[in-house]
Amino acid sequence: MPAGDPPIGVNAQITDAITQTNVKVLGEAPAIAMGSLYQTIGNSVAMAAANAVYSQQQANVTYQAASTMGVANLLSLTV
What residues contact 8, with CB distance under 8 A and at least 6 apart? Predict the structure, then answer.
């Protein structure tokens, strides 16, 4: 722009639209962050429950094997 030209103004509707968009983004950010946090917590709780179920299943297999070995030892005793 040559030195003698007056500065070109920006249409007020454009600045208003940009301002509204920025305010909308800033206003929605906490809700989006909380939604993401709730999804993460929900996923973590679901994984914890799945791990607990898996551990219980593995423990039951171990207990059953131990019981079977104990009964087999009892039945093999000679009096």
Answer: 1
User: For the whole model, what pTM was predicted?
Assistant: 0.58
Structure tokens at 26: 């800033």
Q: pLDDT of 7-57, one tens digit each?
A: 678 888 888 999 999 999 999 999 999 999 999 999 999 999 999 999 999
Gap between the Cα atoms of 61 and 46, Å rounded: 23
Phi, psi for residue 46 in degrees, rounded to 5: -65, -40
Q: Any idea which residue has 């973590």 for tokens?
A: 44
DSSP state of 78: -
How many residues belong to the chain? 79
